[in-house]
Design brief:
Blueprint (H helix, E strand, L loop, with lengths): L9 H19 L2 E2 H8 L3 H14 L2 E8 L5 E7 L4 E8 L3 E7 L5 E8 L6 H18 L4 E9 L3 E2 L4 E2 L13 H9 L3 E5 H12 L8 E7 L3 E7 L2 E2 L31 H4 L1 H12 L7 H9 L3 H25 L3 E5 L7 H15 L2 H5 L2 E4 L6 H16 L8 H9 L1
Parallel strand pairs: 4-7, 7-10, 11-14, 14-15
Antiparallel strand pairs: 1-3, 2-3, 4-5, 5-6, 8-9, 11-12, 12-13
Helix pairs in contact: 1-2, 2-3, 4-5, 6-13, 8-10, 10-11
This protein binds zinc ion (ZN).
Length: about 400
């Protein structure tokens, strides 16, 4: 392609305005047109025209009169949460979920499935496709517009493949998006789990709406980061930005399956935590992650000491992240951060304050996730919704077509 810059055609501008208005409605629930115009920085006539189109498509509905601060009455509008939905599929190393959301990204139903250790990637993916098909059928006649899928990284967005899933094999051979699209018959959009987490934090926490650079660090069965710059994900060449789990904090450390040594996720993932607790306690029957988490909550001294060291190592990874991207906000989320969130936050903040460039540390907020625990599923739904909302005429008849049909 011989393109040196990105220009905007009229249709791009219309698509962007539609997206902005639908995202505002998604965040606000019921809202009058005048408020939408003010918040989007658009003329009221533009908002009136676009919302008329939404109402014709059935995406938006009028909800009756609202009374404003000066006693003025105006008609409120909201997304149509009764007739449409979005499917979110969330794949992790040991489980997957399928969830139906409404257009305001509220979950309507979630089904969870465990993945046995000896089950092949192919078999798991086939079960996942069946579970996705079944939940879509069970929610008929609700029209499921699209499916968003959250996958563990490193995931190559460009090549549509999981490049590596530590501790498993076979996933790199499956073209996830294409197969799922064929099975479901609706558009499917895949996104790396940490990116989904970042989208959920950015869109669902009003505190972060205007954050310039937000980083979400997923500390689960692996470790990865999703980074949002002015509302957009930073993807990188292959879409694999944010693989901090495979950045080294010890170049003489143990070898990792990625080819590096001393990778962060081998020191501070929930998988690493479970392994360290088992190595230290040597129980007759190996402890699961939940067993190790219970011991930590009950105050077991050995487990507590291991956890605090783990938090320091996570802190070392976060210092690298701060020095590389200079985020305004870093949010810690996923499995391991839910065990003792306040203790982890305190320990990580302390480590960062001792090891980070002072000016950077003073201007970086580190927080725990305040949105739903399954922010990957929410982010997967937001991914699909963002794609649909920004290309509406691919899914709904444009006005000319409707007029033509009426004339016929
Ligand atoms: Zn690695």
């Amino acid at each position: 392609m011989d393109r040196a810059a990105q220009g905007f055609n009229q249709s791009d501008i219309v698509n962007n305005n539609r997206l902005v208005l639908l995202q505002l409605l998604c965040r606000q629930g019921v809202c009058p047109r005048v408020k939408l115009a003010r918040q989007a920085g658009l003329k009221q006539s533009t908002v009136t025209n676009i919302t008329a189109e939404f109402i014709r498509w059935g995406l938006v509905q009028e909800t009756g009169f609202l009374t404003g601060s000066k006693g003025r009455r105006s008609i409120g509008i909201s997304l149509n949460n009764d007739d449409f939905g979005i499917l979110a599929v969330c794949l992790a190393r040991t489980w997957f979920t399928v969830t139906v959301f409404n257009l305001s990204v509220s979950p309507l139903e979630q089904r969870r499935f465990e993945i046995p250790g000896d089950q092949s990637a192919e078999e798991t993916f086939s079960l996942l496709c069946t579970a996705a098909e079944t939940i879509v059928k069970d929610h008929a006649p609700r029209r499921i517009l699209a499916c968003g899928m959250s996958v563990p990284g490193p995931y190559s967005f460009i090549n549509n493949r999981i490049a590596l899933m530590t501790g498993t094999t076979g996933w790199d051979a499956i073209p996830l998006r294409n197969v799922l699209r064929e099975r479901l018959g609706i558009p499917v959009f895949t996104e790396q789990d940490a990116n989904c987490g970042a989208l959920a934090q950015y869109w669902l926490n009003p505190d972060f709406y205007s954050t310039l650079l937000l980083a979400y660090v997923a500390v689960g069965q692996g470790v990865g980061a999703g980074i949002i710059d002015s509302g957009r994900l930073i993807r990188g060449g292959l879409g694999m930005t944010g693989e901090i789990g495979h950045s080294s904090i010890n170049f003489e450390g143990p070898p990792c399956t990625c080819g590096n040594r001393g990778c962060l996720e081998n020191y501070c993932s929930s998988t690493a935590f479970t392994r360290m607790v088992n190595e230290a306690l040597q129980p007759a029957v190996p402890l699961s992650f939940n067993d190790a988490a219970s011991l930590l909550r009950s105050g077991n001294e050995t487990v507590m000491a291991l956890f605090l060291t783990l938090c320091d190592r996570l802190g070392a990874g976060i210092v690298n992240l701060i020095n590389t991207f200079n985020p305004n906000v870093i949010i810690l989320g996923d499995e391991l951060t839910h065990v003792m969130p306040d203790l982890m936050l305190r320990q990580v903040r302390e480590y960062v304050s001792l090891h980070c460039i002072p000016e950077l540390k003073e201007n970086t907020r580190i927080e725990k996730s305040l949105v739903a625990k399954d922010s990957f599923a929410h982010g997967a739904a937001l991914t699909a919704l963002g794609e649909i909302f920004s290309h509406l005429t691919d899914y709904f008849a444009p006005p000319e077509e409707e007029e033509k049909e009426e004339r016929l």
